[in-house]
Amino acid sequence: MLHKVLYKNSIDEITDALQNYIDNAPEAEPWQNANDNDKLAYKMAIKRLRTDVNMYDWISDEEESLKATFRVYWYAGHIMFAVPRKQYAKIALDTERARMAHNLCDCYGFVFDDENQELMYKDYKDCFGNEIWLRQDHPKCTIWLGFKQYHEFVIHISCKTKKYATELLKAIEGASYIDGDETWVQLEDLTHYSYLRSNKRICDAVNELLEVIQKL
């Protein structure tokens, strides 16, 4: 049992015993009737809880600042590590959304809509909050990329004119207006899970959109 580790004779022995405990931890089993996406999300969450030192550094700082305790719980389709009812004191354990968001900024020149999320990524390689939004301004439109709840990734384009929105709609297969607003266009939704599973699909969709915008 884990408590036996504390009875070792030195800090080095305790450290070695803890590492051995982590390295040889049994495989965690997801809930009954979990689908493939659920199993992947659960596996990512357990891995982070076991190995993500940066995450625990951030949580320690937040708990001291807020005088509150983080808990693991299910919220809006995600396994969250959070202080209940605190909008900013939360991270999603079951997605590598922050890494993908940072990659989109590096590769395509997007910027974080919330600069504090970018600052957190630089220090801890993660972003707080229910969602992460990126944006990029163009002469005729602004592109919005959203890592939303329930593992939903969206691409929205705010157009300066209805005419330009119509041109985008015709040029991109699967595009549609958002809630009937003829200046807002959305592409088909994608998902965000692990970097390996989701990043290429997201980048391909963003790259296709940028190529269309350059031609119009």
Search tags:
three-stranded antiparallel sheet, seven-stranded antiparallel sheet, single chain, alpha+beta, 216 residues, 10 strands, 7 helices, 22% strand
Description:
The structure is a single chain. With 216 residues, this protein is of the alpha+beta class. Helices cover 44% and strands 22% of the residues. The protein has helices at 11-23, 36-51, 53-66, 97-108, 115-124, 162-171, 195-215; strands at 71-75, 78-82, 90-92, 111-112, 132-137, 141-147, 152-159, 176-178, 181-186, 190-191. The strands form two sheets. Strands 4, 5, 6, 7, 8, 9 and 10 form a seven-stranded antiparallel beta sheet that branches. Strands 1-2-3 form a three-stranded antiparallel beta sheet, covered by helices on one side. A hairpin with a 3-residue loop joins β5 and β6 (141-147). α4 (97-108) packs parallel to α7. 26% of the residues are buried.
Low-confidence stretches: none
Using the CA coordinates, give the radius of gyration. Answer: 21 Å
Task: Please identify the structural class as seen in this structure.
Answer: alpha+beta
Separation of the first and last Cα atoms? 64 Å
Major sheet characteristics: 7 strands, antiparallel
- Mean pLDDT, to the nearest integer, reads 94
* Shape verdict: elongated
